[in-house]
Design a protein that fits this description.
Blueprint (H helix, E strand, L loop, with lengths): L1 H8 L4 H7 L3 E5 L2 E5 L3 E7 L5 E7 L3 H4 L9 H25 L7 H28 L8 H23 L3 H21 L6 H4 L10 H17 L6 H10 L1 H17 L4 H6 L1 H10 L5 H31 L1
Antiparallel strand pairs: 1-2, 2-3, 3-4
Helix pairs in contact: 4-5, 4-11, 5-6, 5-10, 6-9, 7-14, 9-11, 9-13
């Protein structure tokens, strides 16, 4: 733990910072989940105001099957792994935030993920295709037609975000989302991880999942435009089958955005995603920032300990 704190506050340790600056996260019920390559941690504010934190190891499937880590393939793999961890974090956070022992079996977890995926595919891919079909006679040009369908898809997405943002519990979730972003930004800027220092950072972040979803919507327009206007049944099937392709392309674009954040052209290109985060994030209070910091430090500590262990084992071989 002392080694981690020293590295966190050592502003000259650029190598260490670059190694772990890709830590991402997710807001959960009264808490924050932070994820690195090999671990994810969950910190939740309990009813008695204490913070409960647990760290879990990750076994990326790409470690076993190297080709799954290749560009344009790793995006889909990462999305599936993120969904799995995200649902676990949400279910665990409910237990901690309510002090109730609600357990979900692997079967129940799988069913929940399947329902969420079916809802997403149905609402944001199939429904816009069916609605767009009603206007195809007015748009003989296939690109213009697919652009219309894409705009319908984006409109559905925006409407969904705006509607759920009206819910009180979701607004509080968005505050923790803001706390997550502020904490990560503070670390990336070599600042001390305390609320007084973290407050000044924006709630917006280029590598946010909200940004990724908007990129998916835009990439889908261009990918589907290449298919022209096939019969409706092929159109629906293609929308579903090509989701992994779209996710793979979008993931690579998001990595570019995260890597070249300081580039003005890249910043302008991905600026719409930052604007959208003004809906999905809210300004957190200090108690929420404390939760995000606790989660971040724990996952960083786990990575640091693993690095030290691997180095030691390498020297003894």
């Amino acid at each position: 733990m002392l080694e981690v704190n020293r590295n966190i506050n050592n502003r000259d340790n650029d190598t260490y910072k670059k190694k772990y600056c890709n830590i991402g996260g997710q807001a959960v019920i009264e808490g924050v989940m932070m994820r690195s390559r090999n671990f994810w941690s969950l910190s939740v504010r309990k009813p008695d105001k204490t913070i409960s934190t647990n760290v879990y190891a990750i076994q990326p499937i790409s470690n076993k099957y190297k080709f799954l880590g290749w560009p344009f393939i790793r995006g889909t793999v990462s999305l599936i792994e993120s969904l799995s961890i995200g649902f676990k974090a949400l279910s665990f956070s409910v237990n901690e935030a309510t002090d109730e022992d609600i357990k979900f079996s692997k079967k129940e977890m799988a069913i929940s993920i399947i329902i969420a995926v079916l809802f997403t595919v149905g609402v944001f891919f199939v429904a816009p295709t069916l609605i767009g079909r009603s206007f195809q006679a007015y748009f003989p040009n296939s690109f213009v037609y697919n652009l219309l369908e894409g705009l319908i898809r984006i409109a559905f997405f925006l409407a969904y975000i705006l509607i759920i943002s009206l819910l009180k519990d979701i607004r509080r979730l968005f505050q923790y989302h803001g706390a997550e972003h502020k904490t990560i930004s503070a670390f990336e800027n070599n600042d001390e991880l305390i609320p007084e220092k973290i407050r000044k950072y924006p709630t917006l972040h280029m590598r946010c999942g909200t940004n990724f979803l908007l990129i998916v919507m835009i990439v889908a327009i261009f990918v589907f435009a290449l298919l022209g206007k096939p019969p409706i049944y092929w159109r629906i099937i293609s929308r579903i089958v090509l989701i992994p392709v779209i996710a793979g392309i979008s993931y690579e674009l998001l990595k570019i955005a995260g890597k070249f954040t300081d580039n003005k052209f890249v910043y302008i290109l991905f600026y719409p995603g930052l604007i959208l985060q003004k809906i999905t994030t809210r300004q957190p209070d200090d108690s929420q920032i404390e939760v995000a910091v606790e989660s971040f430090k724990k996952v960083l500590e786990a990575e640091s300990n693993k690095q030290a262990k691997d180095s030691k084992e390498g020297c003894t071989k």
